[in-house]
Each structure stands twice: as C-alpha cells, then as structure tokens.
Amino acid sequence: MGIEGSMALSLLADYWALGAVLITGAWLIRNRYYNELNKYPGPFLASLTDLWRLWEVWGRQSEVTHRKLHARYGDVVRLGPNTLSFADPKALKTIYGLNKGFVKSDFYIVQQGVSKGRGLATLFSTTDNSFHAQLRRCVNSAFSMSALVQYEPFVTNTIKLFFEQTERLYVNNAAGCDFVRWLQFYAFDVIGEVTYSKRHGFLERNEDVDGIVNYLGNLFLYVAPIGQIPWLDRLFLKNPIYLKLSEWGIVDATNPIVLFARARMAERLGVSGLGNDTSKPLLPIT
C-alpha cells in the first residue's frame, strides 16, 4: 500500500466519527425537507425519522396520540418524513377512490405470508393495483348483496350457538366472561361457517382452536410497529436466511388459518391423507 493509501486510512480512522455525524445530519435534514412536506405541521422528531412513529405504535397508544395531534394541528398532520395523516372525511374519496393514483404503502407487504421463500400477496396485502383488480374480479360475485343474503342462515346458526354457549358457560359463572375474547371466538366461527360451511370450533370448545387467535395477536403486535419501517421486516421475519430455508422446505411458515382453510378445501375436493403437510398439492399437477 502506498503512502497516499496509508494517509487515507489514517484520516478515516481519525475522523470516522465526524464523518458519521455529518452523514447522519445530512440524512436528517433531507428527511425534514423531503418533498416539501415541512410545510405541514407535526412533531419535529416525526419529520426527521420514522423511528418516532415506530416508537408510538410500539407503545400501543398511537391512536390516542393521533387524535391529540389533530386536535392541536388540524386536519393534516405530518407523522413521518414521507407520511401525512388526514382527519377530514372529505379526503377519503381522494385517497381511496378508484384510479386516484395512490398506491398502498409497503406497510402491507409486512403482512404478507411466506410460501416457498417468497412473500405471498393476498387481496388485502398486495400493493399491486392490477393484481388487486384481477383477484377482486374472482371474488366479487361472492360478496354481492344477493350472495350475502344467502349466507344469513349460516350466521344465524352461529348466533344461536353463541347465545346457547354464553348462557351455559357464563350466566352463573362467578369468574365472569372475557367478552372481547368471546366475541373473537364468535367472529372466527361465523367466518368459518360462511366461508367453508364449517365452524372452526371456538364456541363449542371455548378455546383458541389451533392457536389461531394467539397467532394473529402476535402477528399484529409485530406488523403494527415494524410496518412503520417496512425494510426492517427484511432483517427479521423475511430475512434472506429464513426465506431460503422456506424455499428449501426446511422451515414451514404456514399459519394455522391457512392449514384450516386447506383442510376444508381438501374435504370439499375429497382429498385425504394430507394432514398438515403443505408440500402435497391439493390438485393434481399436470
């Protein structure tokens, strides 16, 4: 190594801390004035980094903070370098209307499951408008008003069971009822009966069947804060090592809801012997 190279390394060793401070400062200033969003009011730290919003969501009181901020600053509040919060209902049509040019953020990608080493987009978690439109066309008829009316008997069946089980389990129960959890059980059983003509069994068994509720609770506790800085998901749940292990079939990232749906589809198709082995196809491969 020449003298110039040695001097460069020496300077780098002596001033790396100063360089890091300067780079960080430039990055924060860039965030502060990004896309001229500095004209919108909001917490100063929020204008510098999304870490402010992650911390707020991590504390599980972000909705309280948002209401206070809107009460203080008005209908539009800056919650991040590239994030605005709107409190005016008139903004709904502009933001969520068809062909308005607004694309869902990467927050939704964090909620995607993993299949064979890749993120698995759904109607809810996709950020691709074309894919969303294509998938929506496939299910539109199932959610038309005429179709929804036909589901009413399934909902009625579960409502009857809900009242029967509520009376049997809790009317004379001095310990009381965790009503939030009980309503979750009811909701999942309604969805199961409407979708698959078979309840999950939450109400009958009065327990978290296959850990579905617990799984979703933990998932939301992860998705909510990490979704504020979506690239962090690539370091945690969707890191390259985990994705490769999933691709090779060494780890199974299938969640319990998918396993239940797969079992119901297998019943409808008359396929047996699958168990929880997701490597076996439901339909023959030609």
UniProtKB/TrEMBL annotation:
<dbReference type="GO" id="GO:0005506">
    <property type="term" value="F:iron ion binding"/>
</dbReference>
<dbReference type="GO" id="GO:0016705">
    <property type="term" value="F:oxidoreductase activity, acting on paired donors, with incorporation or reduction of molecular oxygen"/>
</dbReference>
<dbReference type="GO" id="GO:0004497">
    <property type="term" value="F:monooxygenase activity"/>
</dbReference>
<dbReference type="GO" id="GO:0020037">
    <property type="term" value="F:heme binding"/>
</dbReference>
<dbReference type="InterPro" id="IPR050121">
    <property type="entry name" value="Cytochrome_P450_monoxygenase"/>
</dbReference>
<keyword id="KW-1133">Transmembrane helix</keyword>
<dbReference type="InterPro" id="IPR001128">
    <property type="entry name" value="Cyt_P450"/>
</dbReference>
<protein>
    <recommendedName>
        <fullName>Cytochrome P450</fullName>
    </recommendedName>
</protein>
<keyword id="KW-0479">Metal-binding</keyword>
<keyword id="KW-0812">Transmembrane</keyword>
<feature type="transmembrane region" description="Helical">
    <location>
        <begin position="6"/>
        <end position="29"/>
    </location>
</feature>
<comment type="similarity">
    <text>Belongs to the cytochrome P450 family.</text>
</comment>
<dbReference type="InterPro" id="IPR036396">
    <property type="entry name" value="Cyt_P450_sf"/>
</dbReference>
<dbReference type="Pfam" id="PF00067">
    <property type="entry name" value="p450"/>
</dbReference>
<keyword id="KW-0472">Membrane</keyword>
<keyword id="KW-0408">Iron</keyword>
<keyword id="KW-0349">Heme</keyword>
